[in-house]
């Protein structure tokens, strides 16, 4: 009798597991690109969706073009994407500074591609200029306008570090100089591989560096971000990019992601990236801790 009951119990478990993974279940695939921020975002999204009855598969480490193609073809259902990347790289548009206008333009253009955009966040992983706190205070620099004025008065004093792409693209250094009305001598620009400019800044080899607003080194090195007071750098705010068929099937996705949407800021993402990249915590642990700390999971 015990053997028979055990067999019945085993069969019941198998049926439950199979039914949860069956085509009739709520199945969804979450995508992530190759870097830490994307992996954290995907993991947090997976935890939230699993907490609300979805069977989640994650596909990670995709390049931007591969991710976009996967969203369009529904190989991936949902990812967190940057509106600036979508506008410029996917849709061939000019960058837009205002995040809401950028979002509206993407939503308008991407209808024909079967891609929906929801849950626009305040997290804006755009370009920034950063300096050591003490150096910025010494020179009285709080904004890029302050920096431009100082460079015009002292053109040979400050050394800038940046990757080659930023040094040459119109939404990088050339456009920045034009927008703010200053010109840096070529001899004061140090082009280097991405990421190396932070160590160069820390070692005193350069005075100002290009970066991205959610870079963990800004926290680890206690750097000052110069305010883009004349709003030059375009919006790279995060939003949910969802295959339209998926959203039609699961319209509740927008509401489920809303608490996470509200919790995502430059500061919170910088802290999350810091915990993984600098403190060497696992993506899973960092994602789960953040969700629990912000009460984003069901009790």
UniProtKB/TrEMBL annotation:
<dbReference type="InterPro" id="IPR007210">
    <property type="entry name" value="ABC_Gly_betaine_transp_sub-bd"/>
</dbReference>
<dbReference type="GO" id="GO:0043190">
    <property type="term" value="C:ATP-binding cassette (ABC) transporter complex"/>
</dbReference>
<feature type="domain" description="ABC-type glycine betaine transport system substrate-binding">
    <location>
        <begin position="26"/>
        <end position="292"/>
    </location>
</feature>
<dbReference type="Pfam" id="PF04069">
    <property type="entry name" value="OpuAC"/>
</dbReference>
<protein>
    <submittedName>
        <fullName>Osmoprotectant transport system substrate-binding protein</fullName>
    </submittedName>
</protein>
<dbReference type="GO" id="GO:0022857">
    <property type="term" value="F:transmembrane transporter activity"/>
</dbReference>
